[in-house]
């Protein structure tokens, strides 16, 4: 029999939680709804998690909202996802402001419609002076692409004589990734993936090297504060050794 682990409010809390919000489509299908209804409901799940994370004084929550591979989806679904920053602005912004949450976006700008870029810019600007939780939204993001871009930048610096080959190390590469602005919190402590799938799907490949991973069968639109606390409770049970001994 497995004992249910309870979240300890006085126990260790991860600084950075990364989430692969999976299962929106299946959640909608189970209810006879369009896949987009799952994404719509997924936005509400983000609100629940962000409010819970802010209360717990977690420093960063990174959510995987749209990958560089998601362009392969039907045009209508992609078009809907491109409208989600607008819905986030309309429905989440007051709550984000009330909870002192700063929104950041991580990903490539190319192919993103102008209206989506404009809304994202507005949300980022409105929350830029907030000093609490950072909600880092991975939008048109891919881990391999990020590493390729960082490598190109480093090669250019070596070619320009700004850096020698011997100076290139793990810190150099980390500094060229999109998470560099998160400084000491760049690498997630905990990765959560919902919906029962057990893979990384090109998410934060470098940064997750020593993250604890937690996979839940709960589909993202059903993910709530209780599910989140279950994830954190499991994290509190882990013994992080970073390759060393405990
Ligand atoms: C994965 O579920 C989910 C996505 C690709 C989109 C996630 C987007 C949100 C939750 C909304 C937030 C967006 C912004 C911009 C804040 P899936 O569609 O792969 O589900 P399935 O595996 O059941 O088909």
From TrEMBL:
Its cofactor is Mg(2+). The keyword Metal-binding applies. Keywords: Magnesium, Metal-binding, Transferase. It is an enzyme of class 2 (transferase). InterPro entries: UPP_synth-like, UPP_synth-like_CS, UPP_synth-like_sf. Transmembrane segments: none annotated. One of its GO terms (biological process) is polyprenol biosynthetic process. Substrate binds at residues 23-27, 35, 39, 67-69, 71, 73, 193, 199-201. Signal peptide: none annotated. Its EC number is 2.5.1.-. The active site is at 22, 70 (proton acceptor). Binds 2 magnesium ions per subunit. One of its GO terms (molecular function) is manganese ion binding. Mg(2+) binds at residues 22, 212. GO terms for cellular component: cytosol. HAMAP family: ISPT. Belongs to the UPP synthase family. Catalyzes the condensation of isopentenyl diphosphate (IPP) with allylic pyrophosphates generating different type of terpenoids. NCBIfam families: PRK14830.1 (NF011405), uppS (TIGR00055). Homodimer. This is Isoprenyl transferase. It comes from Aerococcus christensenii.
């Amino acid at each position: 029999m497995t004992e249910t682990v309870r979240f300890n409010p006085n126990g260790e809390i991860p600084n950075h939680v990364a989430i692969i919000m999976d299962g929106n489509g299946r959640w909608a299908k189970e209810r006879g709804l369009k896949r987009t209804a799952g994404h719509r409901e997924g936005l509400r799940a983000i609100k629940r998690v962000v409010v819970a994370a802010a209360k717990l004084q977690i420093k960063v929550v990174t959510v995987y909202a749209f990958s560089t591979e998601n362009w392969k989806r039907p045009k209508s679904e992609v078009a809907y996802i491109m409208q989600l920053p607008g819905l986030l602005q309309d429905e989440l912004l007051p709550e984000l402001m009330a909870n002192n949450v700063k929104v950041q976006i991580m990903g490539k700008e190319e192919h993103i419609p102008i209206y989506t870029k404009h809304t994202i810019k507005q949300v980022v600007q409105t929350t830029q002076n907030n000093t609490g939780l950072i909600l880092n939204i991975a939008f048109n993001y891919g881990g391999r692409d990020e590493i390729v871009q960082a490598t190109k930048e480093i090669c250019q610096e070596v070619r320009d004589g700004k850096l020698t080959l011997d100076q290139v190390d793990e810190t150099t590469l980390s500094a060229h990734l999109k998470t560099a602005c998160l400084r000491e919190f760049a690498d997630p402590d905990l990765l959560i993936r919902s919906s029962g799938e057990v893979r990384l799907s090109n998410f934060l490949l470098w940064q997750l090297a020593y993250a604890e991973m937690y996979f839940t069968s709960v589909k993202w639109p059903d993910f709530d504060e209780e599910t989140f606390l279950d994830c954190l409770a499991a994290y509190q049970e882990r013994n992080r050794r970073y390759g060393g001994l405990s």
